[in-house]
Inverse folding.
């Protein structure tokens, strides 16, 4: 029964290769087919989620009947189950949005790359092998490059090129890190690496981890390697932007944290945590300050998204159980809110042609539902109580106070203040300025999706306890490395 | 002797990185990226190399004692394939950029700002 969880990887892959056959039935059919596949994926992910959370045990899929570390295993614990569900749900919403938003040819290639992007992110989160992680990272990255350049305008090509060059540097760093780890431990299995972590020379471990962190920082949008992100967010098709912000980043940061936390009990850990704290802090400061002076709303949201990822990295850098809880909670909340925001802004851009500030004038009168969705999202990101991000920011603040890091408290509060400035400017523009043009009939399916997300934001904001329980289980999966090692059925007697 | 391989691999990585960071022509940057990937592949291979042993192919007389470590070689095969895909995609994008901007100079390709 457990082996069915491998369908999470197999289904998108097979469906992606079926797209050329579906193409014969007509172009519009492809996008409906995409929605169907992502819906089935959501169903499987929901089943896996239920299975993991009711049994309390992770699902471990062993490929080919070879036990790890000889074979490759998938590890779907509490964290992976939660985020695979998020990936599937967001992909389904975006497949529905694509029906409206994508009208540039070749649509069949778009559907293929869309499925591969979903597959790559799912694989990055589910895998239990560091080289397998590299392969999934490259699947994600290559489909992301191609989707960034999908519109084939000069800007899209430019953004894709930046992404390719940075991604190439990142993947090379990542491979060198793998080479160092393999050279000193002789294994690629994450659980076995964790088991042997104390045997590695601390300097080598630190160098390897630093290289791995820099390699993944490209996907995770941490400061020195995130120059591609605003351009790619601005130039890629609107559904793809949502996918980048909602789960590609999350998969990158999860992989980074999983690898770093494997070395929790070694000397190398403290140094890497400091690196994470510094990178995260710089990411927050630069992201927020750049967001202030944007006139393109999509680009502004991209910078805001980068800053939020910085906050998540800071949370993981503090590395107490409370801080990890808060960071995972923030990952979840950010995925929900940014899906809503980019969806609404993308919808406005599809309707009026571009996501420029001009087009948001008087939006409250022209597209009330969309404007309402943007308003709720913006208020939530700023961290007003009764909305979901308030709780994750608040928990992060408490966790930072517990270890006496007042600098982080100041960082979180300062970031919220800057966010308030640029989001309220947008809200003012939408509700209190007069725009030209008549009221526009809004799309029913998109309206329902937006209302669902708004409801989720408010429900988590008012009753955070239920989701908080789920998040605590998920973050325990990340923090409790000893349990992780115990869960993976390593073949006895095989040692490097 | 083994250190010569490490030295060569790391110099290739650094040459590639230098080309990426300093060149203005897009194609030269992509060549730099390829050189860097080659260096990384060489590094991975030399991690698994044991002096005086043969290739890890299942033939008569090949035992774990007479061959080098096969895992890095399998990894490098995968990495080479990924590298080819990335390079091909990058060149496609470069063609598209040249059609749109009529130049490959990255100083002049600046449609996105801010």
């Amino acid at each position: 029964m457990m082996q069915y969880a491998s369908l999470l990887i197999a289904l998108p892959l097979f469906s992606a290769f079926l797209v050329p056959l579906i193409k014969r039935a007509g172009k519009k059919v492809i996008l409906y087919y995409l929605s169907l596949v992502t819906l089935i994926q959501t169903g499987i992910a929901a089943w896996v989620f239920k299975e993991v959370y009711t049994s309390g045990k992770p699902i471990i899929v062993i490929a080919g009947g070879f036990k790890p570390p000889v074979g490759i295993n998938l590890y779907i614990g509490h964290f992976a189950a939660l985020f695979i569900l998020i990936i599937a749900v967001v992909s389904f919403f975006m497949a529905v949005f694509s029906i409206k938003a994508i009208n540039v040819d070749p649509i069949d290639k778009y559907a293929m790359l869309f499925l591969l992007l979903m597959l790559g992110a799912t694989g990055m989160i589910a895998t239990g092998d560091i080289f397998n992680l590299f392969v999934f990272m490259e699947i994600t990255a290559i489909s992301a490059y191609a989707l960034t350049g999908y519109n084939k305008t000069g800007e899209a090509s430019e953004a894709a090129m930046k992404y390719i060059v940075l991604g190439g540097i990142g993947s090379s760093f990542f491979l060198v890190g793998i080479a160092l780890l393999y050279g000193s431990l002789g294994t690629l299995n994450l659980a076995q690496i964790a088991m042997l972590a104390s045997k590695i020379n601390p300097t080598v471990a630190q160098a390897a981890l630093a290289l791995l962190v820099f390699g993944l920082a490209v996907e995770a949008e941490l400061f020195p390697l995130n120059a591609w992100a605003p351009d790619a967010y601005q130039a890629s098709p609107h559904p793809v932007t949502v996918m980048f912000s909602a789960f590609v980043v999350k998969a990158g940061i999860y992989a980074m944290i999983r690898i770093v936390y494997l070395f929790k009990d070694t000397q190398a850990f403290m140094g890497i945590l400091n690196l994470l704290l510094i990178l995260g802090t710089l990411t927050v400061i630069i992201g927020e300050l750049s967001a202030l002076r944007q006139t393109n709303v999509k680009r502004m949201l991209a910078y805001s998204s980068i800053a939020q990822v910085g906050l998540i990295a800071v949370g993981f850098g503090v590395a107490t159980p409370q801080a990890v809880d808060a960071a995972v909670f923030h990952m979840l909340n950010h995925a929900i809110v940014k899906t809503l925001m980019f969806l609404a802004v993308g919808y406005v851009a599809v309707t009026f042609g571009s996501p420029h500030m001009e087009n948001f004038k008087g939006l409250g009168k022209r597209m009330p539902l969309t404007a309402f969705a943007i308003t709720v999202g913006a208020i939530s990101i700023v961290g007003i109580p009764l909305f979901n991000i308030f709780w994750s920011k608040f928990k992060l603040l408490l966790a930072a106070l517990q270890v006496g890091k007042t600098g982080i408290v100041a960082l979180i509060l300062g970031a919220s203040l800057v966010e308030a400035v640029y989001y309220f400017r947008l809200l003012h523009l939408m509700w209190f300025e007069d725009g030209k043009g008549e009221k526009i009939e809004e799309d029913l399916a998109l309206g329902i999706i937006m209302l669902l997300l708004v409801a989720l934001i408010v429900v988590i904001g008012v009753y955070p306890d239920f989701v908080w329980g789920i998040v605590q289980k998920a973050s325990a999966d990340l923090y409790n490395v000893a349990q992780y090692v115990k869960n993976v059925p390593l073949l006895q007697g095989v040692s490097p | 002797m083994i250190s010569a391989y490490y030295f060569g691999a790391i110099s290739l990585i650094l040459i590639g990185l230098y080309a990426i960071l300093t060149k203005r022509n897009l194609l030269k940057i992509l060549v730099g990226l390829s050189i860097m990937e080659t260096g990384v592949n060489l590094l991975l291979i030399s991690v698994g190399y044991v002096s005086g042993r043969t290739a890890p192919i299942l033939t008569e007389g090949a035992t774990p004692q007479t061959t080098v470590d096969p895992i890095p070689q399998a990894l490098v095969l995968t990495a080479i394939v990924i590298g080819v895909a990335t390079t091909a995609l990058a060149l496609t994008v470069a063609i598209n950029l040249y059609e749109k901007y009529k130049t490959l100079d990255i100083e002049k390709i600046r449609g996105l700002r801010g």
